[in-house]
Amino acid sequence: MNQIRQLIKRSLTAVVPRRLYLVQGTSPHPVLSSETPAGPHSQAPVPLALTFDDGPHPEYTPRLLDLLLQYQQQATFFVIGAQAQRHPEIIQRMVQEGHEIGNHTLTHSEPAQTTARQFLAEIDQTDRILSDITGSIPRLVRPPKGKLSAGKMLGLWRRHKTIVLWDTDPRDYQMTENSQINQWCERFQPQAGNFCLMHDNHPYAIEAVRQLSEHTQYDIRSLGVSHWLASGTKPAPVKQRASA
To answer: I need a surface site. Which of 2, 16, 165, 188 has the fewest CB within 10 A?
Structure first.
């Protein structure tokens, strides 16, 4: 079944415009500006997207934001509406520090048990919650587990949404200790345009950001997913956190 899903993803990527459906950043990828902070490496940074699902989490997400700020990485957070409603201050911090926010439904209900009507109602509710917190409605949507029916997909497109999946998955939600994410980071060979799926309701994404940002063999530069919706877009700088 997983092979069938991969085939469907590749087929959709080939025929659907990227403004509607993204699995990875396609060429031409965003150009890194001369002002882009360079890491501790001499080679050109590899532009990719670090994306985080299922938050915000009251403990892990602020720690993750601290590291993203430290390493000047711009991330995309696909947030659950109910969690955003519980922790609006974390959503506001994401926006203030230059990160991108996407819709990950209201409750992250099981896809097979959620009708298209229920799914789209959760999308609409989360849009309203995020609009109340940030003043804007997100364009990006990531469905729970990346699973969509034709009805759910068409409903999102009628709402002018961009469906965002991924091409890189360390499965951090299955990990039980930092050594596992460290091993994955050591094996990872980043390619320009990778969309990396991680989860900020688990602790291992924090260590992944640290390891990937400090890696001695390559230099990654994480950009928001929307930078791949239009070619030649320069990345916005990661904003400094406002002092209290």
So the answer is: 2
Pairing of β 46-53 and β 162-164: unpaired
Given 29, 53, 200, 202, the catalytic residue: 53
Q: Name which of 7, 21, 13, 26 is nearest 154 in CA terms.
A: 21
CA proximity to 233, closest of 224, 242, 241:
224
The per-residue pLDDT for range 141-193, each reduced to its tens digit, is 999 999 999 999 999 999 999 999 999 999 999 999 999 999 999 999 999 99
Name the active-site residue from 29, 99, 104, 199: 199
Active site includes 227?
no
- Which residue, among 244, 204, 223, 169, has the nearest Cα to 31 in the 3D structure? 223
The pLDDT tens digits for 213-236 are: 997 678 899 999 999 986 543 444
Question: Is 53 one of the catalytic residues?
Answer: yes
Amino acid at 103: N
First to last CA, the chain: 50
Say what the pTM is: 0.87
pLDDT in tens, 27-78: 555 555 444 444 455 568 899 999 999 999 999 999 999 999 999 999 999 9
